[in-house]
Request: fold
Amino acid sequence: MNKVKILKTEITAMPASALKNEVASMLRSKRAHKIGKVNTEFLLRSLNTEMFCDALNDCDCNIADGKGVLWAAKYLSLPLKAKQFSIFNFQFFIIAEAIWQMAYTGASLIFYPKYCRQPIGENIPGLDAMFLMLEAAQDARESVYFFGAEEQILPKAIKGIQKKIPKLKIAGFHEGYNYKDTDMIKAINKSGAKLLIVALGSPKQEYWIRDNLGKLENIRVAVGEGGSLDRIADPSEKAPKWMQAVSLEWLWRLFTGVNRTGDPDRRTKSRMGRIWNAVPVFIYNVVKWKLGEAGNAGVVGNVEDE
Reply:
């Protein structure tokens, strides 16, 4: 599999059809593996936080979670042709070309999605990726441990998972708000689980896996799941398929649902802040990165073999 470097983070160009087999292979391995699910917020955070960037790049596999990641990979892979002609080698023309490329690659996500399927062929939505991993564990007859989410949410999520994957072995679970690391390590080790789902929210879950995976005796695959368990417990959290297809899932999340305390205003403000970072702020930083790279090394969208 190839790895595509977007900003400072390496993304594995893995199709959904290969993920299940890859996880099955990891479960049979003698060592532990870390899987990251990277969206635009993650890419932006890794650009500004070295510790988070290192945590992601230390993963064995980083899945592209969201079409914004595909857009960034495509956009950064396009050369700035204005750099090739000395007569046009002025910053104005270079910036204008970079903005034009940003506009038409962004529009292609809605009107011609196939255009953005290189160098990363497809994204795997977070919830779909988790179910593929759980199916791999079921087929391998290995058990899973769920760690995270709120106390009242976790049982509902597990019930939803059991309904969809009835033969999955669940070794144990624990909510993600009242716990001690030492107790969690003991519980996970005692369970004998090979797959660990950590849903503590990012970046907490990535740091927890980084700091504790070496202490887990049986775990072979650990993955940070963010809000996946919440969306299983409350299906209204997931956008309709047609909105996912045209890259408008973020819009659905903005205008649907209220938080657990029943305060819709607070949750809407929080989501608006996240969407602001995940869309306009992210786009600005990717364009800025491309212009900076073009001015220095002239290399963007670095692709390398794993």
Notes: The chain has 13 helices and nine strands. Strands lie at 2-6, 9-12, 33-38, 61-64, 143-148, 169-174, 195-199, 221-224, 303-305. Residues 264-296 form the longest helix (33 residues).
